[in-house]
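Query structure, 441 tokens:
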């Protein structure tokens, strides 16, 4: 699919959803051989043209037509989320409107078939974007460090193939250099890692050389496509005001308690089974309570299933868990890999101390340590901590200073883009992390 085709992606999604719905009725007839489905098809004919609009609306709500949808993992997780939402919203709508002749199997087949159609539509775009080649213009030592950082983190958004410090070349030399580089390295996009005034001058120079296509401000581009915000650009006062004014937060916290209450009731038998396995594997308390720092620096007691031997820190004091930590029990290792040890934190959500989604809460000792080492670290305390978060579904497991810095960049992105659609994406990605056993903690 071309870039022009991308503009018509909502239309293609609508047509794919419509064809999938027709196909779902046909598959139902082939599988069941029941002519009653043909009567249901006739009765629900007008719904066939309305239903795909719900899918397009949800795709737009979930940001699937935005820049960050360039990532295949992003697209997959959002399509899964969209499919789940489509099923519940469409089924609830039929019940509310007392439409009882629409077969439930048709709805399931429709969502399944349309999922593969939507993903197939995006595959050419994913492949094209993954092969995009970027060249970066930067200035000075600070610019060089940021450029090296961007270059190390190549992802499905494309590849940074090179860059140059504009201070090392005179204007005429820079013009010749850019003409040669764009041709020799087959550059698709020039990214400008410069201050606003310098960025404008560089953009003018690129236009004069006929290479103004695809010119973007580098950090904004990588924020959009990699889901991180560089700490050097953070503004504590602006972030605080932005978060405090976010109208989604009251709804978010209300939904947290409702969902947590429902899940605690539904998962009660499962909790009992896990508690038995934990006790049989390593006698001792089933639950582990630990002090964590929450919203606005308030300390609370976080609840988890115990995954380590009793009194694991009796001799060592407060230390960060490591990959393949010898203190972790056999059952605990499985619980950690699948994130099931975090489920009791639904109690913390119900008590209003945590949210389903947000920056992960840290221990007071570590918060004090990171605040001294990392600027703006306290920004992550502007919202309630979460059972899962953007950093956890995007980051690594290890907990060194560099990784904590990187996680904070993810947290800053989450705070700036705080929304229901982003929370849905994180929950969808969390399910994948639980199934695949990957991601940060």
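Result returned for the query:
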């Amino acid at each position: 699919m071309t870039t022009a085709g991308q503009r018509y992606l909502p239309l293609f999604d609508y047509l794919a959803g419509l064809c999938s719905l027709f196909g779902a009725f046909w598959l139902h007839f082939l599988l069941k051989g029941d002519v009653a489905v043909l009567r249901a098809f006739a009765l629900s004919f007008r719904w066939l043209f309305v239903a795909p609009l719900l899918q397009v609306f949800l795709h737009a709500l979930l940001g699937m037509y935005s820049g960050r949808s360039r990532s295949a993992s992003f697209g997959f997780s959002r399509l899964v989320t969209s499919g789940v939402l489509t099923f519940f919203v469409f089924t609830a709508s039929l019940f509310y409107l007392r439409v009882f002749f629409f077969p439930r199997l048709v709805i399931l087949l429709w969502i399944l078939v349309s999922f593969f159609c939507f993903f197939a539509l995006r595959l050419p775009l994913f492949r094209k974007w993954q092969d995009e080649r970027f060249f970066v213009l930067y200035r000075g030592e600070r610019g060089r460090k940021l450029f090296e950082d961007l270059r190390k983190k190549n992802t499905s958004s494309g590849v940074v193939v090179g860059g140059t410090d504009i201070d090392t070349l005179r204007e005429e030399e820079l013009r010749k250099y850019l003409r040669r580089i764009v041709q020799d390295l087959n550059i698709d996009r020039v990214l400008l890692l410069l201050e606003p005034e310098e960025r404008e001058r560089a953009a003018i120079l690129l236009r004069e050389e006929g290479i103004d296509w695809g010119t973007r401000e580098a950090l904004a581009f990588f924020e959009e496509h990699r889901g991180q915000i560089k700490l050097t650009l953070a503004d504590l006062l602006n972030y605080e005001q932005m978060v405090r004014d976010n109208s989604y937060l009251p709804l978010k916290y209300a939904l947290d308690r409702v969902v947590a209450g429902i899940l605690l009731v539904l998962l009660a038998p499962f909790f009992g089974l896990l508690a038995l396995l934990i006790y049989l594997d390593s006698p001792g308390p089933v639950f582990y309570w630990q002090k964590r720092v929450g919203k606005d620096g308030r300390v609370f007691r976080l609840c988890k299933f115990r995954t380590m031997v009793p009194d694991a820190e009796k001799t060592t004091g407060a230390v960060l868990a490591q990959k393949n930590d010898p203190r972790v029990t056999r059952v605990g290792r499985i619980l950690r890999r699948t994130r099931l040890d975090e489920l009791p934190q639904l109690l913390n959500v119900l008590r209003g101390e945590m949210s389903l989604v947000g920056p992960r809460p840290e221990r007071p000792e570590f918060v004090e340590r990171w605040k001294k080492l990392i600027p703006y670290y306290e920004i992550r305390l502007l919202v309630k901590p979460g059972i899962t978060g953007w950093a956890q579904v995007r980051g690594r497991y290890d907990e060194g200073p560099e990784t904590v810095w990187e996680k904070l960049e993810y947290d800053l992105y989450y705070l700036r883009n705080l929304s229901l659609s982003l929370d849905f994406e994180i929950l969808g990605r969390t399910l994948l992390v639980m199934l695949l056993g990957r991601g940060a903690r």
